[in-house]
Design goal:
The protein is globular and about 35 Å long. The model has no long low-confidence stretch (mean pLDDT 93). The protein is α+β, with helices and mostly antiparallel strands and 84 residues long. The chain is built from two helices and three strands; from the N terminus they run E-H-H-E-E.
């Protein structure tokens, strides 16, 4: 995302049926969750991931996945949002 622009949670309308996937980095999602909830997380903690998943499903996404950042076995790279 461009510096200076407010980071936004993805919505299914921003993707097409031919390309039904959106991506947000863990850094962007932490900033979005902190802003929405008045939190102060500095990492992509389980509470942030739980909020992201719940918020995504309420926005109409079919599924959300949190892939690992290669080559880490624990660090999450962000989230992949899949349209219904």
């Amino acid at each position: 995302m461009t510096a200076g622009r407010k980071k936004q949670f993805p919505v299914p309308a921003e993707v097409s049926d031919a390309d039904p996937v959106a991506w947000r980095s863990s850094e962007d999602l932490v900033a979005i969750a902190n802003d929405a909830n008045k939190w102060d997380y500095s990492s992509f903690a389980e509470a942030v991931r739980d909020w992201v998943k719940g918020h995504a499903l309420s926005k109409g996404w079919g599924a959300v996945h949190f892939p690992l950042a290669y080559p880490s076995k624990t660090l999450r790279a962000g989230a992949v949002f899949i349209k219904k």
